[in-house]
Fold:
Amino acid sequence: MKKIFFILCLFLLNSASCIAIVETSKLSIQEAVEIAKKNNLDIQLARLNISIEKNNIKSSKKFQNPEIGLFYNLGKAGKGNPQQIGLSQLVEIGKRSDRKKLAQTNFQLAKNNVEYLEFDLRMDVREAYTNLLAKKTIYASLKKQEHQLNELLNETKIRHKKGIVEQIDVLQAQLLLNQILTEVNSADYNVKTALFEFNKVINSPEGFYDTKEEKFSSEYKPLLIPKPDSKMPDFDLIDDKAVENRYDIKIAKQELEAAEKELKIVLKKRIPDVEITGGYSYQNPGQSGEGTFKHGAFVGANIVNIPIFNNYSSEIKNAELKVEQNRLNYQSVLNKALNELKKTYEKFLMAQVALKNYNEQLLLNSEELIKTSRAAYKKGEIDLTTLVTMEESYRMILVAYTYALADYYNSWNAFIREVNDEKFTINSVENL
Structure:
């Protein structure tokens, strides 16, 4: 019911009351990941495949079931001929071992699929968490601007009453405040939308959740992000690690191994099997020809499944084609993975440079400039039009900085997704 009510709130422009009604629990990014893993049905479904493949390993080790046979002669056909009852056992030649190896490969493949889904979910939670935090940071920046512009409007009204400025300055200040109010409402809506998307990723029926932090801060470690001044290792050192860790490459490689083992199994169908029979044989006194009861044992052997009429050529050809398909798929997955890794690596480096540029120059300079401009307006050294221009420029820089910060976080998450290693570290960052 909370989620349904929250969706309705998204369609309201002034929905501050909705936030008060919908109770939220604050989560760290690690707690959000754990709750998502607990409730994800796709992962629960995939885990069942592990149990299935584990049972298939047990099945692959088993021998064929025996057969019980009875041979009984009736009437004169039984004269001098024995009656028989016994067992037949099919002995497979060279097939059981390969079948067991294939089952073990499929078991490992099922485990890697679950691990891949879990990793993908963790990354989805991290990205949704970061996106929500970015929207909340923009909203907080605009609310701060709203407060400052309210003060500017009050200051302009006071100056107008004193006859220092004209009525047009009051109207201009009011217009600027109205503009920021529109942006605040839009930012508020974006926060609610991101909050819903965050809960959609977590997909928990037990509650409705929010981020522990209210905005981005200089503390990067809680969000598992390295500092902007951290130096990235060379790409040549990263790509080997990625090939080693990536689940999609592991899965593609195991699918190739499974296809090769399947081919071996099909090839060995051409090897005939042996059927061994044995049992008890006897003759009744009336049919033995000597008037006495005679009995003993019998043994026998048959060669079965001789590939004369069907030599499995079509099945072998299809198995060979499947091996080739999986070989090409493995190479394709490998090539795409390295290409995506290179792209995200370069994107993170660019995001790092952009954020450092804001931190070291643009943001500090613009904050100093806007403080000086506001003080100059109060002293009557500049007019309102000049201050309005400065306020709009400052607001644009603040929003752009927040987007640059969000891009930095998201580009790192994208890079970690491609490396497939959440504990990847770079120089000054320990055990992320």
In short: Residues 96-161 form the longest helix (66 residues). The chain is about 65% helix and 10% strand. The first strand starts at residue 25 and ends at 27.
